[in-house]
Amino acid sequence: MSNALVKVGSTDTRGELTQLVSFNLDREEYGVEVLKVREIIRMIPITHMPNTPHYVEGIINLRGKVIPIFSMRKKFGLMESDSNSHTRIMVMDISGELTGFIVDGVSEVIRISANEVQPAPAMVSGGLDQDCITGVINRDNRLLIVLDLDRMVSKDDKMLLTDF
Which of 101, 75, 87, 107 lies closest to 43, judged by CA? Predict the structure, then answer.
């Protein structure tokens, strides 16, 4: 796992710290590297685009830049849910392109050390490619699934991103 956020099973005793932004989908909590997150915005009207994958909600205009918006619920194969006051769009840098991801809510920024990340069991991934899950954190009696969004977004998705 050379591209992992933190190396699972690392023998580093210094406890190197990393910051994650945690967000919710359904009843699960996920985390992504804070440096990937450019901003978090409330839901705004999304312009739907024809002939896009089912998980692409459309595009938005964010201060003059057109940004594609993905539904994390649809990408993860979860049931759709209506937006509410907690729903957010996380604008992230994916392979050099800004992309928005709709999440049920953003929780907090947490600091973790490398030794807190445990390998994820294969069954955790569900419909996701296992490579995008860099590990699981068990903290304060809650589990947080750590994601690498660069790995989650397929080559076809990346080509789609460059078309906007």
Answer: 87
- Tens of pLDDT, residue by residue over 33-56, are 999 999 999 999 999 999 888 899
pLDDT value for 119: 82
Domains for the chain: give ranges and CATH numbers: 17-162 (2.40.50.180)
pTM of structure = 0.80
Which distant-in-sequence residues (6+ apart) come within 8 Å of 35 by Cβ?
19
Sheet containing 65-71: which strands, arranged edge to edge? 37-42, 88-94, 97-103, 65-71, 56-62
Secondary structure E strands in 12-54 = 17-25, 28-33, 37-42
- DSSP assignment of 115-138, as one string? GGEEPPPGGGGTTS-GGGEEEEEE
